[in-house]
Amino acid sequence: MRTKQLGKTDLKVSVVALGTWPMGGSTYGQVDDNESIATIQAAMDAGVNLIDTAPAYGDGRAETVVGKAIKGRRDQVIVATKVGIVRQPGGKWRNLKPESIRQQIEGSLRRLNVDTIDLYQIHWPDPDTPIEDSIGELIKLQESGKFRYLGVSNFDTKLMDQVLSMTGLASLQPHYSLLNREIEDEILPYCIKHQIGILSYGSLGSGILAGKYKDRPVFAEGDTRYNFYRFFQEPKWSKAMQLVGVLQEIADNHGKPVSHIAINWLTQQQGVTCALVGARRPRQIQENAGAGSWTLSDSELKQIDRAYDRIFKNNLDT
């Protein structure tokens, strides 16, 4: 498994990391906790050393599953979780008030059954709380040993500037894949300049870039994928399928799964530390983890980019 240094930290991260959003059981259909635990352990056995989770994934269910899975193997894994999304009266979810942050981190430490969180990430900005108040509290918690490094998710460059004016920033977790390249304009160059590691989510386009679908799927009511990932809607769906066809040709030449092509394109982009991939069964992460053992050639990377430009014409909204 290839590894990369995460930003300016001393963490060496596997280029394929495991995302546990599906394991929460609240947005991707029903899951079995024992199978989730087996999946996390299979990931670790395959060389994946970063497990990303959040209290928002099933109201703590995913964190609890991660805690059970890494018991006795804590030294083999980088534990990354988040803060700022909590269920509240009136349908409000974002809360980065200092008192809420203190409650949230204690809950995460308890569910994960760890003394210290390796990477603690602000899940989404909270427009109702001054960022200075949130970061001030996080600095106190970091100094007290509750977590090692601070990261953010879904932040723009202006917000990251504000964070950097107060403290160090190890990482950004943005939506980034061959189907969503919006961060390449401003955010990715910013992170490269400031040595902020990138942990991409949505790396496989919710399975599209893994060749999972031959026909456009119909999801059950309440399934997050249809609205969160725009590629399941036309005309993006048909264009995505054209791109997958190109990836499949390259995969066939290597005798590898098509998911490896999408993952390796991503992890070979400058500034990207790792690709977060979700899984609900051991065989899924075992297959995807294999991408970390080889790389695409420069000519193959260029072939993929040419295909992207031809199919999408640099405009995902048409």
Description:
With 318 residues, the protein is an alpha/beta fold. The protein has a single domain (3-232, 259-293), classed as NADP-dependent oxidoreductase domain (TIM Barrel, Alpha-Beta Barrel), CATH 3.20.20.100. The chain has helices at 33-45, 61-69, 98-112, 131-143, 157-164, 187-194, 225-228, 236-254, 258-267, 282-289, 298-312; strands at 3-5, 12-14, 16-19, 50-52, 78-83, 117-122, 147-153, 171-173, 197-200, 272-278. Helix 3 (98-112) packs across helix 4. The longest helix is centred in the last third of the chain and has 19 residues, at 236-254. The protein is globular and about 55 Å long.
Outline the biggest β-sheet: 8 strands, parallel, barrel
Shape estimate: globular
Please, how many domains?
Answer: 1
CATH class categorisation: Alpha Beta
Features:
globular, single chain, 8-stranded parallel barrel, 38% helix, TIM Barrel, two-stranded antiparallel sheet, 318 residues
Topology:
Layout lengths: L2 E3 L6 E3 L1 E4 L13 H13 L4 E3 L8 H9 L8 E6 L14 H15 L4 E6 L8 H13 L3 E7 L3 H8 L6 E3 L13 H8 L2 E4 L24 H4 L7 H19 L3 H10 L4 E7 L3 H8 L8 H15 L6
Parallel strand pairs: 3-4, 3-10, 4-5, 5-6, 6-7, 7-8, 8-9, 9-10
Antiparallel strand pairs: 1-2
Helix pairs in contact: 1-2, 1-10, 2-3, 3-4, 8-9, 8-11
